[in-house]
Amino acid sequence: MITLTGLWQQLRQQSKRLWLGQWLAFCGAAVAVPIPLMMPLLVDEVLLNQPGKLTQTLAALLPPAWVGPIGIIACVTLFTICLRLGSVLLGVATTRIFVSLSKQVTLGVRQTLLDKLSRIRMQVYESLGAGQITARLLTDIETLDKFLGETIAKVLVAVLSVIGVAVVLLWMHWQLALIILLLNPFVIALTMVLGKKVKLWKQRENNAFEVLSQSVSETLEVMQQLRASNSDKRFLEKAKQAAETVREAATASGWKSDALSRLSFGVFLFGFEIFRAVAMLMVVFSDLSVGQMIAVFGYLWFMMGPVQELLTVQFSYYAAKAALTRINQVLEAEEEPHYPARVKGFNDQQPAAISLKHVTFAYGEGDPILDQVSLNIAPGEQVALVGVSGAGKSTLVQLLLGLYAPNQGQILFNDQAIEQLGYAQIREHVGVVLQHPMLFNDSVRQNLAMQQPYADDALWKVLEVAQLAQFIRDLPDGLDSQLGRSGVRLSGGQRQRLAIARMMLKQPQVVILDEATSMLDTHTEALLHAAMHTFLRGRTTIIIAHRLSAVKEADRVLVFDGGRIIEEGQHATLVNQAGSVYQRLYGQQTA
Ligand SMILES: Nc1ncnc2c1ncn2[C@@H]1O[C@H](COP(=O)(O)OP(=O)(O)OP(=O)(O)O)[C@@H](O)[C@H]1O
C-alpha cells in the first residue's frame, strides 16, 4: 500500500537534492521578503521628508552629490529590481529541483503499479478491465503527480514566505501583525473541513472517467466486429453516455472545488479588509506612519500569494488521497502465489513428463470444470485432448501453466510439483499456442521475438517451418513489416502460423497447441504438420483440436466429458469402438 507518508520518505531518500532545494527555497524567500519594505520607506524618508535609516545607510555608501531624492529613489529601485531578479532565478532553480524530485517519486508509483500487474491473479483481471487499470495508471497518478509537484515545490516557499512576512510584520507593529496572523489558522481549519468534500467529488470524477475509459477501450478492441454487425454506433453511444457522466462529475468537482477554494480565500480577504481599516485607524490614533502603513499593506499583498497556494495545496491533498485510494485498490489486488524455483525440473536435452493427480478445479464458486482428473503423459509423447465444446480442455491448459491453481490434487512436471518448480520455470519451458493468438501493433520481428534478441536467421528458420516465410518475404518491409493493431493485417491462419513460429523460437520442452491450426486450410495444415514433425520429435506435446486431421497423428487420445477423462486410446482403436463418444465426434470426419 502506498501512503503519502511513504512517498515523503521516498523523497527524503534523495536527501542531497532535497536539502539543496530547501536551501534555495529559503534563499528565495529571504530575498523576496524585504521587497515590500523598500518603496514604503521611500514614502516616509523621501516624499514625507523624514530621513531615517535608509537615508543614513545610503549617505554612508554613496558620494554626497547622489544623496538626494533622485539618487535615493534610483538606488532603491535598482536594489528592488535586483532582489526581484534574484527571487525569480532562485524560484526557477528551486522548482527545477523539486519538480524533478516529485517526478521521480511519481515514476516510482507508476513502476510499482506496473510491476504489480505481472503478479495479479488472473481471476482479478476477469473483473478488472484494461480501461479501469489504464485510468488508474493515467488519471489517478496524474492527480497524485500534481499534488506532489505542487506540494514540495510550493509549500516550503509559501510557508517560508508567510513566516518571513510574519517576522517583519511583528517587528514593524506587533499588535497589527497578531490580528492577521491569528486569522490564518482559522482559514486553514475552514479549508480542511471543506477539503474533505473535494476528496469525494474527485473520487466520483475519476470513477466516471474510469467507466468511460473502459467503455472506449472495449469498443475499440472489437471495432471491426461491431462495425460488421452495424452495432458500433450503439456502443459508441454508450461511451457517449459515459462521457456525459464524466462531464457532470467533472463539472461538479471543478466548480465546487474552485468555489470552496475561493470561499476560504474570501474569508481571508474579509479579515484583510477589517485589518486595513484597523491599520488606518492606527495611523490616526497611534504612532504608525503612512509609510509603515503602506509597507504593512504591501506585506499583506505579498502574503496573499503564499496563503492562496497553501489553500490550493490542501484541496489537491484531498484529491491526491482519493487517487491514492484507487491506486491502492489495484496494489492490494490478490496476487497469484509466488513459488520460487526450488528444483531444476527441466533438462534442455530431454522432453518432460507431465502428470496430474486427482485434479479438481472450479472457476470461483461454481461446479467443478475438472473433476478428479488423473493422467500421465510420458516424455516425448504426443497426446490429443478432445471433447465437446466446454468440456474443460482449455481449462486444463491454464492449470498446467499455473494461470489458475487446482482446488484439489497436484500437477507435476518430471515428477516435480508445480509449487517446487515455480511458475516462471514452467512458463519458460512450456510453449503454448492458442486459437486466437495475441499479436501486437508492431513489426513481424518484434511479434516473433517478444522483446528478446534473436538473430534474423533464427526467425527465418521458424517462419519456414510455420509455412509463413514466403509470405513475410513478399511483404515490402519483410521482418520489419508492421502488423497493425492485434495483427489485423494478417489473416486468421497467418496469425496462427506466426504464433506457432513464435512458440518454436522458444524451443520449449513441452508444446501445447490449443486449436492452434483451426483456421488453416487442410493443405497448409498438412504441410505445417509435416514440417513440424522434426521440431516436435523429442518434445512432449499436447494437442487440443476439434479437427480430426490435427488429432489422429497423436500417440494417444484422451476424451474429456463433464470434467473427466472418459475414454483413452489410439485414434484407430477409439474410432472403431462402437457407441464411444470419440466415434460420435470423429466417426463422421473419418468417413
Ligand atoms: N475464466 C473463466 N471463468 C469462468 N468460467 C470459465 C472461464 N473460462 C472457462 N470457463 C468455463 O469453463 C468451462 C470449460 O471451458 P474450457 O474453455 O476449458 O472448455 P473447452 O473444452 O476448452 O471448450 P472449447 O472446445 O469450446 O474450447 C466452460 O463451461 C466455460 O464456461
Give a description of the structure.
The protein is of the alpha/beta class and 591 residues long. It folds into two domains: 4-331, ABC transporter type 1, transmembrane domain (ABC transporter transmembrane region fold); 354-590, Rossmann fold. It is 65% helix and 9% strand. It has 22 helices and ten strands. It has helices at 4-13, 15-32, 35-47, 53-61, 69-117, 122-127, 130-172, 174-221, 223-228, 232-285, 290-331, 393-400, 418-421, 423-429, 444-449, 456-465, 469-474, 492-505, 522-536, 548-551, 571-575, 581-590, and strands spanning 354-361, 370-377, 382-387, 408-413, 416-417, 430-433, 510-514, 540-544, 556-561, 564-569. The strands form two sheets. The protein has a six-stranded mixed beta sheet, with helices on both faces. The protein has a four-stranded antiparallel beta sheet with strand order 2-1-4-5. Helix 3 runs antiparallel to helix 5. It starts with a helix and ends with a helix. Bound molecules: adenosine-5'-triphosphate. The site of adenosine-5'-triphosphate (ATP) has 11 residues, from helix 12.
List the helices and strands and how they pair.
Elements: H1 4-13, H2 15-32, H3 35-47, H4 53-61, H5 69-117, H6 122-127, H7 130-172, H8 174-221, H9 223-228, H10 232-285, H11 290-331, E1 354-361, E2 370-377, E3 382-387, H12 393-400, E4 408-413, E5 416-417, H13 418-421, H14 423-429, E6 430-433, H15 444-449, H16 456-465, H17 469-474, H18 492-505, E7 510-514, H19 522-536, E8 540-544, H20 548-551, E9 556-561, E10 564-569, H21 571-575, H22 581-590
Parallel strand pairs: 3-8, 3-9, 6-7, 7-8
Antiparallel strand pairs: 1-2, 1-4, 4-5, 9-10
The structure holds adenosine-5'-triphosphate.
